[in-house]
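P.,

For your records, the input lines for the assembly:
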Amino acid sequence: MESILAFTSLGVLLVLGMGAFGTAIGFGVLGGKFLEGSARQPELAPMLQGKMFLVAGLIDAVTMIGIGIGMWFTLANPFLAYLQ
Amino acid sequence: MASGEGLTSNEYMQHHLQNLVYGKLPIGYERADGHIVEQAEWTFAHSPKEAVDMGFWAYNVDTLGVSIVLGLVFSFLFYRVAKKASTGVPSGFTNFIEMCVEFVNTNVKEIFHAKNNVIAPLSLTIFCWVVLMNTMDLIPVDIIPLIAQTVTGDPHLYFKAVPTTDPNITFGMSIGVFILIIYYSIKIKGVGGFLGELTLHPFSSNNLIVKIMFMPFNFLLEGVSLIAKPISLALRLFGNLYAGELIFLLIAMLGYWQLPLHFVWAVFHILIVLLQAFVFMMLTIVYLSMAHEHH
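Structure tokens returned:
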């Protein structure tokens, strides 16, 4: 049982960490492209900003799903339930 | 949260992450306070284990109640403003409502180019309803359970005030959108066109034999992409709000350092609330627009 708990916590760590890593890189590239584009054509900046927020919401999606799964494993570990 | 006895942090989290479940317990089941169920009865669950054992046909009463009340609030407010609509310069609340409608209208016009009277009201409803439901997360996390407990006198009452932290509601909305996607796809393109879209993209050829050979691969790819739409819509909204609420709960366990952290996180959370509603609405419009276009 201890090994299940230990490996679960490592697993949750990987899910959250890699999700954060990917999201950070994604947001960085997105923001950089937005700044570049609005520097090139400042009159398009409001329209680009709206689309940027849309894509930002999409980038967050799988990371948030990972957070949900991580919390599920932390608080209500299904592997522990198999032991009973 | 019971008064008097101290809760461990684990118990506090478990208490606040449990919905108010109303369901049927089987005969012979031993409840949390020890007594055995004599006849199959419909009751509220008194522990997380009971809530799980109630099975599929149990209702999350808090989610249902809050979401229905917020839906009625939204409908009533917009109805009142719509009745008073005139061509003069709007002021105050009417102005705010008109801003919302214009915002949704602009977005729909940019993306959706077919003719359909359902899309714009659907998007408006989705956006405003999701914003209202998400804003419930900004209410301090202990207040509503406390009020519910003093009103009903039950010190162990569970109550989760934010409906969108319950995957049931987000899946309900996204399955509704999914049904609309399939309905409009079949209505505009016909059953043959809809199935053709699933089996003839992305690999296609002019040779009939090769076309038939490619069909399983195409169907797999397009099928996954089709199923991913409602699942990702639902889980994106659920995950964001659940993570937000979890962080509120974790900050609430810190003691006196709560207040500055709560404030900072609440300000950030306002952005998430609006952004997730916006993304849900935009994706609905985009998916329905894709369902309407001919190739």
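Two observations worth noting. The longest helix of chain B spans residues 208-252. Chain B has nine helices and three strands.

Regards
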